[in-house]
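Human: Not sure, check this?
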Amino acid sequence: MAVNKLFLVLITILILSISCSYAPKVGPINTKLCIYPSPNPTISEIMEAFEDSYAKATALKINVVTFYYKLKDLADNLDNDECIIKYLAPLAEKYNLELAIEIEAPEPPGVLNDLPTDIQGLNFTSPTLRDRYISLISGFLDAVSKYDTNHSLKYLFFGNEIDTYFDTHPEELDDWNTLLTQLVDLTTSKCPQILAGTVVTYHNALANNHLDWVKNYFGPRCDIIACTFYPEWMPKGYEPGKLDQQFSDIVSSYGGSWKLALIESGISADSFMGSSETKQATYMYEQLNAISNHSSDFEFASPMFAVFAIEWGSPPFSNWVAGVSVYRRDGTPRPIRDIIANNVTTSSTTP
């Protein structure tokens, strides 16, 4: 009986050692990694809310943290001699992180948009809207000069997934492109240390045959183009083994004289689109290797969208959104937490 138990123990150890030896390997990542340090708090909540999130991002070997600045919040903050950069900059410096801020574009109010009252109902063809947006960005850059003395803010983006708006409003593209040029030039003039640009989708642009918009419209006006890429929203969904080629396709479609970044990515752990935490873990190894293989192509890249689960929208989509995160709704880590923390290695050339 004792011999049988010893035999079982030895077999178990052998199986575990074999399984460990065949665990996926991740190559060195020689570019910056980014993540969204959810949730998106108000100014009064920022220090407490982001302290834990920034600390967890650092433990994941993240280099860049993003922030989505709603336009109405920016307008209200500036009216009260406040700005989110006053709080984000010292926190980023404390954790040795760089900042990438997306400022909401003044699209007509939709799901995400809550615009200042004086430009509600206007669109990009309106000089009033364009002038107001330039004024708000100018005020933000003044705040950056005042509060971000150590230059933690490295990247500034105007609009998030802006191509999705022009899918249904192509007649406003020329006005947006003129405005985008002015905004990038304004940033260069006031804060030359910042790379400025806009954010587009890959999965949506592919589905709507608008991949050429980056090279024909947006890219030549920008220092940097950032894209979002969610494999589950590709025409065939997430296809294991295809990520590396899809990364190559992104670079081919969106690369140019400007820098390129992957600002959002990931698959959900939620079952809404047939996923699970196990499937998400398998994806993470593939995602990290795709980033490794394309390190020289990206200024920074996202292994997973958010630190904590984000509550946005309504079920079942809200459950999918909450699942594109490293930590669950109850604050406990998903398996991908250790996969990222234990497998990300860098070389001396990593920024």
In short: The two ends are 58 Å apart (CA to CA). Residues 7-22, 347-351 have pLDDT under 50 and may be disordered.
